[in-house]
Amino acid sequence: MKHEHIIKPVKKWVETLVVGLNLCPFAKREVLAGKVRFTVSEGETEEQLLTDLQAELELLEYDPGIETTLLIVPGVLQDFYDFNQFLDYVDGLLVALNLAGIYQVASFHPDYQFGGTEPDDAENYTNRSPYPILHLIREESMEKAVASHPDPAGIPERNIALMDSRGAEKMQVLLRACFQDN
What we know:
This protein has about 180 residues and is an alpha+beta fold. It has helices spanning about 5-20, 25-30, 45-60, 80-95, 140-150, 155-165, 170-175, and strands spanning about 35-40, 70, 105-110, 135-140. Strands 1-2-4-3 form a 4-stranded mixed sheet, sandwiched between helices.
């Protein structure tokens, strides 16, 4: 595969952190069912990335066999603050395509930082990934998954406690390990 060296660490991240640590209790079923699309944007500008994002949203509309897409972004928006600001364009694209409320886009980044935290706080690792990633999610599916979970509101607190108990150094080691054997 053309982008296997980029996709492989993201798959390993999903398997070992997202599913393995149960950061997203809804992910395992879709991963095991093979309904997660891993794809790489070749965009080197924000405009090219928006074009790739639109194409992926259109593919999701066309192909109900794809439950969710991880659009991996290795060529642009390496700075977290630029990436975070770009999310306004993502929201605007959803509105322009009349897909707001049908899809939502979650964001992950190697330098993800929640507001009110320090860059080296362990809790930031709940959203840290090998590369910047735009995660395209079907809202209807998310609503069903949340409705079937016993405590969806408690997920963020549980994840923060888990990250804090492991510590930033251990989480950094786990994230770096995603690139081993590539």
